[in-house]
Write a structure and sequence with these properties.
It holds the Pfam family DUF6771. The protein is an all-alpha fold. It contains 4 helices and no strands. It starts with a helix and ends in a 14-residue tail after the last helix. The mean pLDDT is 78.
């Protein structure tokens, strides 16, 4: 996870690389809305640990959708643990 202002500046520089793919606003909005509801609400929590977990989950959702990780096959049988 990015720590502090310097970490954020480094991440912004990394994400601002002109050779990287750009994300359209509509696509990003759809990705954020597909994230778990607790993560979207969790960003507003007073507990710092909860906010960090929520931000991490939102970031993971964005990365997963942009990398095109396939969803589990609906025909796959669930095995009991």
């Amino acid at each position: 996870m990015v720590q502090g202002i310097n970490g954020l500046a480094t991440m912004f520089y990394f994400c601002s690389n002109p050779r990287m793919e750009r994300i359209e606003r509509d696509e990003l909005s759809a990705i954020l809305l597909s994230a778990p509801g607790w993560a979207r609400v969790g960003l507003t929590m007073p507990d710092a640990h909860m906010r960090e977990r929520a931000a991490d989950t939102l970031a993971a959702t964005i990365i997963e959708k942009l990398q095109g990780v396939p969803a589990p096959d609906v025909n796959q049988l669930r095995l009991p643990l």
